[in-house]
């Protein structure tokens, strides 16, 4: 698409071209050269007051495709070395509730007109975990005892650790997990009361998960 900029409100007869308005659609590359990969587009309007005020959003591609970052702030004169900051005031997609700043610096001109600006964007976002569907299985085990349940408001998102109590057979289990809103919780020990021996807890890594649990039940001794 290239870089596009059009004047939509001509400058009236006021000092500093007060009221002059342009609409722009600029490429954002991953390196300071025209042939570098385009990773986003900066689209918005520039309105001249005492300085040019830029109101725009950054439409991201690749990893954050479909997300945008909204920015606003003063844009200085088109001179090499001019620099400044814009406020990040929100966003969409991966950048919902984004806050931060974007610094720019005019580094050099390009043949045929135009100028390259170096951008440094620093953003902090609030992340709200999306609910993960929970599938209920069981109950499994013998005919005695009482069932154990996790409350609806504490449903798990990810298993963090498992602790086994027992000697020749598993007597009791306990586990810790992260719930749907990111809070750490510990459950158990669940099971019988006799013959307990606590084994070292099994800690799960970020990419580890339980694929299968199997065994038998019955009388012992």
UniProtKB/TrEMBL annotation:
Q: Please, which domain of life does this record's source organism belong to?
A: Eukaryota
Its subcellular locations are: Secreted, Extracellular space, Apoplast
Q: Which UniProt keywords apply?
A: Apoplast, Lectin, Secreted
InterPro entries membership = Allene_oxi_cyc_Dirigent (IPR044859), Dirigent (IPR004265), Jacalin-like_lectin_dom (IPR001229), Jacalin-like_lectin_dom_sf (IPR036404)
Subunit details for this protein?
Answer: Homodimer.
Q: Which family does it belong to?
A: Belongs to the plant dirigent protein family.
User: In UniProt terms, what function does this protein have?
Assistant: Dirigent proteins impart stereoselectivity on the phenoxy radical-coupling reaction, yielding optically active lignans from two molecules of coniferyl alcohol in the biosynthesis of lignans, flavonolignans, and alkaloids and thus plays a central role in plant secondary metabolism.
What name has this protein been given in UniProt? Answer: Dirigent protein
Tell me the organism: Digitaria exilis
């Amino acid at each position: 698409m290239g870089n596009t900029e059009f004047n939509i409100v001509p400058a009236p007869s006021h000092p500093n071209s007060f009221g002059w308005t342009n609409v722009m659609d600029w490429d954002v590359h991953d390196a300071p050269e025209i042939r570098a990969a385009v990773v986003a587009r900066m689209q918005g309007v520039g309105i001249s007051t005492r300085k040019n005020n830029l109101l725009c959003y950054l439409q991201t591609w690749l990893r954050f495709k479909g997300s945008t970052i909204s920015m606003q702030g003063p844009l200085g004169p088109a001179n090499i070395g001019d620099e400044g900051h814009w406020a990040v005031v929100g966003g969409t997609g991966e950048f919902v509730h984004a806050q931060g700043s974007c610094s720019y610096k005019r580094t050099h001109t390009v043949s045929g007109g135009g100028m390259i600006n170096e951008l440094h964007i620093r953003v902090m976002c609030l992340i709200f975990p999306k609910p993960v569907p929970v599938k209920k299985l069981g109950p499994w085990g013998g005919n005695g005892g009482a069932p154990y349940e996790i409350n609806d408001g504490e449903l798990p998102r990810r298993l963090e650790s498992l602790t086994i109590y027992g000697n020749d057979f598993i007597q009791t289990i306990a586990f810790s997990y992260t719930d749907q809103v990111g809070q750490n919780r510990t459950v158990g020990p669940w099971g019988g009361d006799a013959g307990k021996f606590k084994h070292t807890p099994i800690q799960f890594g970020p990419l580890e998960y339980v694929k299968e649990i199997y065994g038998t039940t019955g009388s012992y001794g």
